[in-house]
Amino acid sequence: MISVLKSGLMTTIQDTGRYGYQKDGVIVSGAMDPQAHRIANLLVGNSADAATMEITLMGPVLEFQEDAFIAICGGNLTPMIDGDSVSMWKPLYIKKGSELRFGQPKKGFRTYLSIAGGFQVRKVMGSSSTYLRANMGGFDGRTLEKGDQLRFGHLDSQPQHLKEQLKTADKALSFKEASWFVGPEFTNYTKNDQPIRVMPGREFDLFTEQSKEDFFNGPFQIDSKSDRMGYRLNGTALNLENKKDIVSEAVTFGTIQVPPDGNPILLLADHQTTGGYPKIGQVASIDLPRIAQMRPGESVSFSPITHEEAQRLLLEKEKNLKQLQRGIETKLR
Question: How many C-beta atoms surround the C-beta of residue 97 within 10 A?
Fold first, then answer.
C-alpha cells in the first residue's frame, strides 16, 4: 500500500492506453511519454503495459506502507527518499515507512513511477489509464489526492534476491539503488534541444508556400492553455491557399491541425478520435516522448522527415529497446 500525503500538480495512473474503442468515440489516452513508461516497467520486471504513476512537474509526497521495488524514469523532477537524492533510470529497493517526494524540476515535464506488480486499479475497457474529462479509469477517474491509498503488486512475485537487497541495505538509508542503470542513448531525449521531426500531413499541400516555410522555420511557443489533449502553439499564423471544407477523419497522437486562427494544435495522448481541421503534419513516433517532456512556455520547432526515414528510425529504436529489455531481464534473474 502507498499513502498519498500530498497530491502534486497533476498525478494520475496511466498504462499504454485504451485501444479498440475509437470507433465508438472513446479515446486511447495512456502515458504521455510511452518510452519512459515502458522502461520504468521493464526495470522492475513488469510487462510494458502495467500501470505506472504519471507525475507532472510538481510531484506528490508518497509514503510506502510496505517494502517496494520501484523505478523512476522520464523528466528529472529531483526525486528524494527521506530527504536523500535518488537516481533515476535504475531499480530502487525501498523499505517500509519510507517517504518519496520531489524537489525542484530540473529537466523535462513528466516522470513515471513504476512499482513491481504495477498499481492495482480497476480496469475500464481493458485499460488502467485515467481519462480526466470523462472521469474514467485510473484511480476513480481522477488525479490523486491527499489521503488516497494505492495498492500494488508484491515483492513475492519477484526473484528472491531482490528482496534480499532490502535486508542488506545500509541501515542509515531507507533505500538501496541497483549498481546498474539505463544508458544515455535511451535517456538523453529529455533535453529537447533539437527540432521535432514531422512528416507532411494529409492537407500539407493546401497551405500557402509561405506557411509551409514558416511551419518548418518556426519556432512556436507552447501556450499555457495546453493540456494532455493537445499543445496550442503560438507563432506565425499558417494559412490555406484557398478555404476548403475538410471532412472530419481520424487523428492520432502527434497529429498537427491548424484551426481557422492559423495557430497549430499538436494533438497528444488524450486527443479526440476525429478532427475536421486541416492537418499540416504528423510528428514522427520516435519524437513523441520528446514532445511529452516539453513544458508550456517553451519553444518548439519542426524539421521535415520522410515516412521511410521515420519508419526506419522507429524500427531501429524498437530493436534497441528489445535488446535493453533482454539485458534488464538478465540483471533481474
Answer: 12
- Decide: 33 and 72 in contact? Cβ < 8 Å: no
CA nearest neighbour of 197 among 320, 299, 33, 307:
307
276 Cβ contact list (under 8 Å, min separation 6): 246, 247, 248, 249
Candidates 186, 214, 201; CA nearest to 250 is 201
**Which of 111, 68, 109, 70 lies closest to 90, judged by CA?**
70
Q: Phi-psi category of 280—alpha, beta or left, where left has phi over 0 and alpha has psi -120 to 50?
A: alpha
Cis-peptide, bond into residue 264, ω within 30° of zero? no
- The DSSP symbol for 139 reads B
Are 176 and 93 in contact, with CB atoms under 8 Å apart?
yes
pLDDT (tens digit, 0 to 9) for every residue of the chain, 333 residues total?
999 999 999 999 999 999 999 989 999 999 999 999 999 999 999 999 999 999 999 999 999 999 899 999 999 999 999 999 999 999 998 989 999 999 999 999 999 999 999 999 999 999 999 999 999 999 999 999 999 999 998 655 555 555 566 566 555 567 788 888 888 788 877 666 789 999 999 999 999 999 999 999 989 999 999 999 999 999 999 999 988 878 899 999 999 999 999 999 999 999 999 999 999 999 999 999 999 999 999 999 999 999 999 999 999 999 999 999 999 888 887
Whole-number Å distance between alpha carbons of 210 and 36: 37
Which domains are assigned to the chain? 2-189 (no CATH), 192-314 (2.40.100.10)
Contacts of 6 by beta carbon, 8 Å cutoff, 6+ apart: 60, 61, 101, 146
d(CA 266, CA 218) in angstroms, rounded, equals: 14
Gyration radius of the chain over CA positions: 21
Angle in degrees, CA 41, 44, 46, rounded to 5: 50
